[in-house]
Amino acid sequence: MIKHLLLGLLVCIVVPVSAQQKDSWAHRTSRNIRQRLDSALFRKVDTTYIEVPKKAWRVILRPKINQIDTRVSSVLDDDLIAKLGESWGLDLTGLHFDWLMKLEQPMSTSVGVWVGYRGLGIGYSQSLTKHSGRYFSLSSTGSCYGVTLSVRSFETDDLSTRINLSYIDENYSERDDNYDSYAPIKVNTLFLDGYYVFNGKRYSQAAAYNQSVIQRRSAGSFLLGLSWYQSSIDLSNKLNGDIILASNHIGKIKVHQGNIGFGYGYNWVPARNWLMNVMVMPTVAFYNRVKVTKYASNYDFFVLDSDTEDYGTWNPEKRQWSNGKVERPLPIGEDMDKEDLSWQKDVDNWEIGSETKHTRWKVNINAHAGITYFGKDWFAGVYGQLHRFSYKHDNMNVKIWDWYVRGSVGLRF
User: How many CB atoms are closer than 10 A to CB 357?
Assistant: First the structure.
């Protein structure tokens, strides 16, 4: 698969260079590569079910709406609860505190271009929405397999939170759907997704999503999936101390996850030149490595106090205030101006260690749906995709819902 992908990229470079020298070595080499790709990627198909177009190149315009919904839930550990009790002069034995933070990437509207030869292609899209990031993909598909590499990054300070607090027989719950963090939280993801089609002779996943071939008769197939997922969530900006503290001092999360799945896809051809596809594949994370980096701060973000004690200035080398203390209460009290953020110039944080754990298996979801119309040398369609990933570290759980709805208009040449 990797060899075919590299050969395809070589074609993209060689063909334009050699276009004016049809008898050159470069032209002969590119022609041989294309013939090899045609033979390797699309042999053994039943032509009564799958048509391989004579025009192998495609360029596709892809407007898209997408969002990554990241949910981080955490239960405050006993040590932090004891510390709170000491700060407040209370016995908090029996206190339970849990919270949910939802990182809401702005609904992203993007425009992208995809260019491909047969089952090989490269795509790039740029968001038209602030902070919604960029998306890059590289794909290779054949009669019995498909591989896609996608990379995405974004940052957001638009959060929603939910807090649940219980103490003996008392319960308290608070929800804030418009919580703005003091600094953006950064999210990066890399997803390498591969599948094997058991009935590749009559069913084509590629016909539905990159239109390298045309499905002429209805057919379905079981699929075996294998994927690799990496993500990082960075909340470590020193101004996000409240979020870090509520996350049990966790400021960075990195996950490496290997998934295997078994699913089913079906291509329905309701009329000539029309195609509708649905594919659902539950997956199990057989490898789940989570690394967290913990941070401490010179402010206690859980204590809002108008204390007049003179803390003096902060010494970053010694990591203490002039009065010898390491932490001071956040200087926002009921009688103070909550819009006064002058304290931020003194805030500091630093790493206090990292932990790496291999957690138990997790169940994830990979699902696609789409509808396509094929013209003579063009095609158009609408497609949707949903991925769900989840992982856990001690008292923290993370769930990521990655979805998009995409339009597509393409030409063959």
Answer: 13
Give the three-class secondary structure for 391.
strand
- Exposure string of 212-248, with b = 16+ CB inside 10 Å and e = fewer, is bbbbbeebbbebebbbebebebbbbbbbbbbbbbbbb
Q: Which of 279, 263, 256, 291 is nearest to 362 (CA)?
A: 256
Q: Which of 321, 309, 349, 314 is nearest to 182 (CA)?
A: 349
Q: Facing residues of 372 across strands?
A: 275, 381
Distance separating alpha carbons of residues 48 and 216, to the nearest angstrom: 7
Distance CA 101, CA 244 (A): 11
Cα 298–chain centre separation: 32
Residue whose pair of structure tokens reads 């996943």 in the numeric block: 205
Residues 333 and 392: their CA atoms lie apart, in Å, by: 35
Neighbours of 313 (CB within 10 A): 7
Give the pTM: 0.78
Question: Helix, strand, or coil here: 40?
Answer: helix
The length of the chain, given as a count of residues: 413
| Matching residue, tokens 């000491």 | 86
Q: Are strands 299-304 and 328-330 parallel, antiparallel or unpaired?
A: parallel
φ/ψ (deg, to 5) at 94? 95, -5
Give the whole-angstrom CA distance, residue 40 versus residue 144: 11
- pLDDT, tens only, 41-93: 556 789 999 999 989 899 999 998 887 777 777 776 667 677 666 666 666 66
Measured distance CA(24)–CA(152) in Å, rounded: 40
